[in-house]
Write a structure and sequence with these properties.
This protein is mainly alpha-helical. The protein contains 17 helices and four strands.
Length: 420
């Protein structure tokens, strides 16, 4: 009995140690600048700052409300499992699949009013370019995909719990890593095209520039795609995604069409850093290191939430889902700590590759204005939820890089071949 009492805190210590150790092991050790001080008033107008603050502050409330609604619903299902969940236990695997799909669809329906409010607010400031019909179509697609994945996860969870009642967390950890790797490999070619149209970057000056930067970085960039993001949003972005043959750099069409060449060049250089440093595989490695202890913590917590009854049935899935959400919430800030360090390295890499801090500062400002980034985001939110450095930190890093490298803007303009 005494040993049972200490299993949960010991599992918590093990999970925290694994996450902290993985973060220390995989953190960038070079290429991260300590930023200089940067003032928001030097780069943004009061109107721009106020517009972003007025939009983002309520959006944060909506996000927290969504999390609270989902948490309350799971807590209720754990405390009072409904009769349909109990009946699904008669056919364990099918019941697990049905319960997983039902929970996924149910949470989407439960939080639909909050999602609609968030969409309407995005539309009112011009951030969303969708019609309600288009938004609804995307919602149906996402709900269907989520239900299929949750059904598979529910069946797999029940099968593992029944086959390995006491040690299911070990194969469960392996399954989490394996499925995550499979998702990273398949999503770019299976799921993403359901929502957007991806086209290889056509021949022209930009493709030539991208390939020249890749040669300069001595990296196989994979394929570079242009995505029709403007059909959904006025926000701009670029990202690296995929594994092996599906590895790709993806650039928003409104980034390509609406930003100056030198700023697009900075974006490409930043994304090349993720390819050079193999950040997607390293993210999977972080997961592989932390998954066993994290899954053990989920097991110990779920058993207590489920009042020490068997989890190997559909009725036990809410307890597993709630425990998983709690563990993700605890370890998420540690993961984001690593993510911010990786993004700082990518920023520095872009500065080294382009030798153009002015373009990087202009890009940081443009992205903040276009995407309505709130420069007054509370520190708590940045630490817990922030996967990227804050805008002023990125600007400050570029200023510091320019100071250390004695950057000469006039020399850059005379050799870059770009417009002013």
């Amino acid at each position: 009995m005494l040993a049972h009492r200490y299993r949960l805190p010991l599992a918590l210590v093990a999970a925290a140690t694994a996450a902290g150790g993985a973060t220390l092991l995989l953190r960038p050790r070079t290429g991260v600048e300590k930023p200089a001080a940067a003032s928001a008033s030097d780069y943004f107008t009061p109107a721009e700052l106020q517009k972003a603050r007025d939009f983002r502050a309520p959006q944060r409330v909506i996000m927290l409300a969504t999390m609270a609604v989902e948490g309350a619903a799971l807590t209720f299902l754990v405390a009072r499992p409904p009769a349909p969940l109990e009946r699904l236990g008669r056919r364990p695997l099918l019941g697990g699949a049905a319960a997983g799909a039902g929970l996924s669809i149910g949470f989407t329906a439960l939080t639909l009013p909050l999602s609609a409010v968030s969409e309407q607010r995005s539309r009112s400031v011009g951030l969303s370019t969708q019609t309600w019909r288009s938004w609804g179509s995307d919602l149906v697609k996402a709900t269907g995909i989520g239900a299929v994945m949750a059904a598979g996860g529910g069946a797999l969870a029940v099968a593992g719990l029944r086959r390995f009642p006491d040690r299911w967390w070990l194969p469960g950890a392996g399954a989490i890593v394996g499925l995550s790797a499979l998702f990273a490999f398949a999503a770019p070619v299976v799921i993403d095209p359901i929502f957007n149209k991806f086209e290889p970057l056509p021949d022209g000056p930009l493709r030539t520039e991208v390939l020249a930067l890749a040669r300069q970085a001595d990296v196989d960039v994979g394929q570079v795609y242009r995505v029709d993001a403007s059909r959904r949003t006025s926000a701009t972005n670029a990202y690296v995604w995929g594994l092996g043959r599906t590895k790709r750099v993806v650039m928003y069409d409104n980034l390509i069409d609406g930003y100056p060449d030198d700023q697009v060049r900075s974006v490409v250089a930043h994304e090349l850093s993720h390819v050079v440093h193999k950040d997607v595989p390293r993210g999977l490695l972080w997961l592989a290191i932390t998954a066993p202890a994290s899954t053990l913590l989920v097991k110990e917590l779920a058993e207590r939430l489920n009042r020490d009854q068997s989890l190997g049935a559909a009725a036990g899935l809410p307890a597993l889902a709630l425990a998983g959400a709690i563990v993700s919430g605890v370890l998420g800030p540690v993961s984001n700590l690593l993510s911010r360090a990786v993004e700082r390295r990518a920023d520095n890499y872009a500065l080294e590759l382009t030798n153009d801090p002015d373009a990087f500062i202009g890009l940081s400002r443009s992205l903040a204005v276009t995407n309505l980034a709130d420069l007054t985001t509370p520190r708590f939110f940045q630490v817990v939820f922030g996967s990227h450095p804050a805008t002023l930190e990125r600007i400050g890093a570029a200023l510091e890089w320019g100071r250390k490298n004695r950057y000469d803007p006039s020399a850059q303009r005379s050799t870059s071949g770009h417009g002013p």
